[in-house]
Prior knowledge:
Layout: E1 2-9, E2 20-21, E3 24-27, E4 31-32, H1 45-51, E5 60-64, H2 66-72, E6 87-90, E7 102-105, E8 109-116, H3 122-126, H4 130-134, E9 135-137, E10 143-145, E11 149-155, E12 157-159, E13 164-168
Parallel strand pairs: 5-6
Antiparallel strand pairs: 1-2, 1-6, 1-13, 3-4, 3-12, 5-11, 7-8, 7-13, 8-11, 9-10
Amino acid sequence: MSGTVSAVSSSGTYSFTKPNRESIRLLAGLGVEGDVHAGVTVKHRFRMKRDASQPNLRQVHLIHEELFEEVRGAGFEVAAGELGENVTTRGIDLLGLPVGTRLRLGDEAVVEVTGLRNPCAQIDTFRQGLMKQVVGRDADGSVRFKSGIMGVVLAGGVVRPGDGIGIVLPEGPHRPLEIV
């Protein structure tokens, strides 16, 4: 299995959307260089209020570009970086990956998948009604979050649009993604 990086984004301030960049640098154990969410401990404001000493399992946010096509069908225009992701991918079923999957981004960077991103109310502030599109239900009726996955940086490196993404699944049994 493999895919492609279609866009990279980062922001040094707390903002819902992140501007696209020509490249981003991933730093081992920290996240995206210069991004507000980079760090060893949690940097998301809600989680910091609860316990700022928690390990940062959300150093890198990845979203599949196919989600933008899906929501476009429901009348929503969303582009790379607008949902706050750092890496926009194409050709990978991100939501179907198990915990512990390693993604090689470009030549050097490696991100280990930690879990699902939980969609927040800011999604509806960005585009009213969009939250309903990124939170769905599976055939069995269980809630399915579609707003991307989170990971930690195991090996640093520069990541650019057009870079390949290699996938290494963990040894089984595989654990499905849960919100981190």
